[in-house]
Write a structure and sequence with these properties.
Blueprint (H helix, E strand, L loop, with lengths): L1 H8 L16 H23 L5 E9 L8 E9 L3 E7 L11 H14 L8 E8 L4 E8 H20 L21 H8 L14 H30 L21 H10 L12 H8 L1 H8 L31 H11 L1
Parallel strand pairs: 3-4
Antiparallel strand pairs: 1-2, 2-3, 4-5
The structure holds iron/sulfur cluster.
Length: about 350
């Protein structure tokens, strides 16, 4: 959707993928629109700075110079007179920094592709646009510095890894690794947290609780991934000692809703319930402007539920004195989420 909407901004013919999209949501559309608006603003900014930006959408980049057999696709590359900008759209809720390896490597690929054509380029900008977190993260470096890093660090490590000789190193990059479900090193790392297993939470020290907090989301996500992997493997015929495949709980459902309604109505009973649309659905139906005019005074935003996040999170820390954590707040939140 991002590609299509960006092409539309740039007046490049493209086929609208939305009618056939299986997982289309309004939120997704708004996120993609925001991304396109963001690129538009970047272009205007470059133009205001006296540059002539060119945009390349879903640009394939060849990374084999640095990593054997490696290619990638960059969401958006902007080339100006002296700069190259790599913009990556992330729809996920896991924060990705602009200094991430992926973006740096894509930036290298883009430098390889365009650096020879545009000889005056010297500065590389990397941007992660992450709408569902309301986050835009930026990093930049000189092209020479980027190539120095590629020669000194990336290439030697990639060659070692490709030859199967590198050290296993667990980190946030494991999230995108194809071996993450079965990697012994990652499993050992995730299960380290099990050392707290037989200690009641109140008996853990503050340092130990902080350690659990910093790792528990990754542990849950990893364990869920292993379960999904094992289920698929079992469906493919693999057997795990002590485990078997069974049918899950099944639910009853009607085969023909219209027929059911007709029969129930004929029996003198109204089978339908009348229910007001939720806030988001009504806003969509009325349009933002009419929604605002008609209902603005009837909308409240409840205080969000307190959540513990790492200090690196960009949200402002809560003032504990102002927290009123009541059942009423909870109910408002439920209503709004509906
Ligand atoms: S999951 Fe294992 S192989 Fe993959 S990056 Fe992490 S440590 Fe390396």
């Amino acid at each position: 959707m991002c590609e299509f909407l960006l092409h539309r901004l740039l007046e490049v013919p493209d086929v609208d993928p939305r009618p056939g999209m299986k997982y289309y949501t309004q939120e997704m559309e708004e996120a993609a629109q925001g991304y396109v608006q963001f690129i538009h603003e970047r272009l205007e900014r470059w133009k205001a700075a006296g540059q002539s930006p060119e945009v390349f959408v879903e640009q394939r980049v060849d990374l084999r110079m640095f990593i054997p057999e490696s290619m990638g696709t960059s969401d958006c590359v902007i080339i100006t007179d002296h700069d190259i900008e790599i913009i990556d759209f992330k729809y996920g809720m896991h924060r990705v920094p602009a200094s991430s390896l992926q973006l740096r490597i894509y930036a290298l690929g883009a430098c390889e592709l365009f650096g020879r054509l545009y000889e005056d380029i010297g500065r590389v900008h990397m941007v992660i646009y992450q709408p569902r977190l309301g986050s835009v993260d930026e990093a930049e470096m000189d092209m020479d510095e980027l190539y120095h890093w590629a020669d000194e660090e990336l290439k030697p490590r990639a060659e070692l890894a490709f030859a199967g000789q590198g050290d296993y190193s667990v980190g946030e990059w494991c999230r995108n690794c194809r071996a993450r479900r079965t990697c012994r090193e990652l499993a050992a790392h995730q299960l380290e947290i099990a050392r707290y297993e037989f200690t009641e939470p109140p008996l853990l020290s503050d340092e130990e609780i902080a350690d659990v907090l910093s790792r528990v989301d990754d542990l849950v996500s990893w364990a869920t991934g292993v379960k999904e992997y094992a289920l698929q493997a079992a469906l493919d015929g693999r057997r795990f000692e002590g485990w078997k495949l069974v049918e899950g709980k099944s639910v009853r459902k009607f085969t023909d809703d219209a027929c059911v309604a007709a029969r129930v109505e004929a029996a003198g009973i109204d089978p339908y319930e009348r229910k007001m649309l939720g806030l988001t659905a009504l806003e969509k139906k009325l349009g933002k402007k009419d929604f605002q005019n008609l209902l603005a005074d009837l909308v409240v935003r409840s205080q969000g539920k307190p959540t513990l996040v790492p200090v690196s999170d960009k949200r402002v820390e809560m003032n504990l004195a102002s927290v009123e954590f009541t059942a009423e707040n909870d109910m408002k939140e439920v209503n709004e989420n509906e």
